[in-house]
Amino acid sequence: MIRWFTGHPTASNLLLLLFMAAGVFAAPGLLRETFPDFRAVETEITVPWRGATAEDVESAICAPLWDAVQGVEGLETLTCTAQIGRARAVATMAPGNDALRFVSSLRTEVATIDTFPASADPAITRELHRTDRVTSVAVSGDLPPGELDLYADALSDRLSVLPGVATVTRSGLGARTLRVSAREAVLASHGLTPASLASAIATQNIDLPAGTLEGAGADLTLRFAAERDTATALATIPVLVLPNGATLTLGDVAVIEERFEPPHDSAFVDGNPAILIDVAKALNADALRVLDDVTARVAAETARLPNTIKVEVVQDVTSIIRDRLLMLVQNGVIGLVLVVAVMSLFFRPGFAIWAAMGLPVAFAGAFAWMALTGLSLNMMTLVALLMAIGIVMDDSIVVADSIAVHAAKTAAVDTVAAGVAAVAPGVLSSFLTTLAVFLPLAFLAGELGAVLEVLPVVLLAALAASLVEVFLILPHHLKGGMKESAPSRFRRRFDAGFDTLRERGVGCLADAAIRWRWLVAGLATAALILTAGALGGGVVKREAMPEIDGDVLEARLMLPAGTPLARTAEAVAQVEAAIDRVNARLTPGQPDAQPLVIRRITRMGRNLSAGEAGAHVATVAVDLLGAETRTSTLDEIVNLWRVEIGPLPGVSSLILTEPGIGPQGVAVELRLTHPDLATLSRAGRVTMVELQTYAGVRNAILDLRPGTPEVRLSLSPGAEALGLTASDVAGQLRAAFLGTQLSEIRRGDLAWDLEVRLNDTDRATRSDLNEFEIALPEGDTVPLGTVATLTEGRGWASITRRDGQRTLTISADVDGRVGNADAITARIAEGFLPELAATTPGLGFEIAGQAANSAETVRSILRGFVIGLVGVYIVLSFQFRSYVEPLIVMITIPLAFLGVIWGHVLMGYNISMPSLVGAASLAGIVVNNAILLVGVIKTRRAEGLSATDAAGDAVRARFRPIFASVSTTIMGMAPLLLETSTQAQTLKPLVIAVVFGLLAATVLILLVLPAFYAVLDDIRPDNR
Length: 1024
Prior knowledge:
Layout: H1 2-7, H2 11-26, E1 42-48, H3 54-69, E2 75-83, E3 86-93, H4 99-111, E4 124-127, E5 131-141, H5 145-160, E6 165-171, E7 175-182, H6 184-189, H7 194-204, E8 207-214, E9 219-225, H8 231-234, E10 238-241, E11 247-249, H9 250-253, E12 255-261, E13 266-269, E14 272-282, H10 287-304, E15 309-314, H11 319-346, H12 349-355, H13 358-373, H14 379-406, H15 413-438, H16 446-452, H17 454-479, H18 489-515, H19 517-536, E16 552-558, H20 565-586, E17 597-604, E18 617-624, H21 634-645, E19 653-657, E20 668-673, H22 677-691, E21 697-702, E22 706-715, H23 726-738, E23 740-747, E24 750-758, H24 766-770, E25 773-775, E26 781-783, H25 784-787, E27 788-796, E28 798-802, E29 805-814, H26 821-839, E30 844-848, H27 849-880, H28 885-890, H29 892-907, H30 913-942, H31 947-977, H32 988-1019
Parallel strand pairs: 7-24
Antiparallel strand pairs: 1-3, 1-4, 2-3, 2-28, 5-14, 5-15, 6-14, 7-12, 8-9, 10-11, 13-14, 13-17, 16-18, 16-19, 17-18, 20-29, 20-30, 21-29, 22-27, 23-24, 25-26, 28-29
């Protein structure tokens, strides 16, 4: 086949065009994102229960929910959080199961539960992670809230129809509510109660079909239309007919107003009230295209709106994708130019360009495979393509060099094909060893593994396409360009200098290493032991993923549950003033004195870290000058912001963080379990105090916190004699103090909630509760205090059950400049937590977050690495026809790790997950050169040379192609290695591992491997 493609006038070019066409058609359709989707399949089950305490929700909803779903096939964990007024459970599917079947099974099991409280709303089951947030749009202006709401609703509709937009969610103004509130004294004067008032409204305010008149001529549909949809219309509803025949209307006994509830659901942009519209895309939509469409829509709206309304794109978390991908593409182009330039040093420029044609083919093949398998253009896949720039050139160099030798005199089809055939076994062997190493790495475990495993997939696709190119396309192109011409002056001088380096430099060093082979072998082994000790002893630090500075920073405040909104607003004002001072201080140091803080967005009633909503929580977010532009790091801004905030009286938690959690998870996450909440709370507080003693720990928080103060009621002795039941009293209290929600009212396209309850002035103090009149069955009333016993207490804001066990979670961030999250977690897990569990009967603990995610992924990387080594050994043993000589080749793998570890130390980086993937990748790269070297040694031995002479001669013979192939690989990744931008920090550990590992391995292959081969010859039985 090789000879046929070489001789056919069009076949090779047609195959080249086929590859290029596939790549050109596939590339534009690839989605662009920062990382591959690493999230597990999760299903959310929510059960609203108005007014219920967390303890009630836990026992009445979370417990039966676990009993019902624990047998669902594929369920890995169920985490149910009981909060005031609702339960939220998240079911996580174990890897390897069918997502559709898992979600359907959960829906079925939840639907069969018949023990939920009657007053609870139906359970809602939905699959999570079906959308990705793109950006938010802020609508603000000098308009009444109702008018602003109408415009925001219309804008939401226009945004929702944009291509790729999946959901549009509004926040910052609360739900539209028609509230009916009455004074207790007014109701009592007419013998009414809040419950009877709600009943009267429900029976009078209806809109129902009433049947059909089926006549001979035509059918008529009957409809009873008595629904009122405005405050004025609702006021006319009759609620009581007086003895004199007069009718008492709703407007006579109650105040009806249009408002937005709850009042703490509010947002502000730079201090101005605003409505925020969060835009999310479908999973199969391109984030940058959606962002561009949203931006264009906002620009069109701004152009036609008056100055009284301002619409702007805020909290853009997507445009950074474009910056990161552009950075990688630019580095790739520079790397490609450097590769061609390096090849031109060893070959004629025209020859080098033809050899470099393998790169476009490899990229096209990778793009086509990515489109077929649903992979996206992200930081991992682009790094794989950058790695391919150098690795692909290895095969091209070997094949082109062999063709040049065989066709030096006559560039005929037969001689070119013979040149290819001469190196085909070695090239195939190199590909198979690379395949053996990379293929197991395509099946990594954990969320970090889901991010990293796409790299070997794309790289293997590129290498497979390149293999086709070097065998079927490259020979045809080189067939007509192999005639020797007189070398240029530069070529003669370069070749002479390179020959001197080979003979007098590397060759002499190799001879010395072979002569002192036992010393060299001992030093290499000692270096490996020293490096392993430095890694195990903590001299070289480890982490899950390097941190990347983003462009959004949040301050999340939490005050004790029950804190009034006014007090929370005071704390928020202090935080806002602090960031304004930070902005004024740091802005002069930014390029062209650009403002550091672009805008400030405040959301009351929201705190993602606490997982709670209410008047006691709030979030202040700032959009910052781009990370590539500003001169201040996030850590510097956070530290200065915290100093400027100072003490916050009454604030129980202040977290300054970047929104979102990457694939590595929370830096430190510890879980405690115990059946008693009080014991669990004490253990959690002690653990958090211990955690905060470690340097660098910040933003520590636990999820078992006291709830709002409670008044617990029970019937007094003798209340039953009055005809009262607990259900009667509770129902009247709920109607008065919690309120009754009636059927939703539609006014055009807008939905309004209808709520009836006591006036705020009658439900503000403890005395209002004591004096509340309870209606008796005979029509009389008695004060609540005479029929009920009232005791004060305090429950819990939220209670978490994980797989049926009560669980407390402590989480914290770690400043990587000061502390190391993995080291902190390890020390607590090995020392403090076992001691705490020993002194607290029934207490269990579990390590989660970054440490658990890293451990899971590391185990899968090591497993894949071992499988890869076995595959490499099998391939080499088959090729060398020996059981021992493959070990000489494979010894280059641990030697390469010397460069990996100390390269990180030299560059000032910690060992991370990308580092491990890069190190594992080396196993498939460095053995290729070792294969070439050992192959020449075996050839020289067959010619009659001794082991020492054969090893020295092989180093000189293979120095040029080894140097050329290593140089192209390093040059392909050198631009990214030298990249100083913030966006490259996640990828640089992988590049450091490959570049420094390959550099060290090359030096050691040329010096240490020949020494080991000579040592092997010394200890062979036939040499004794």
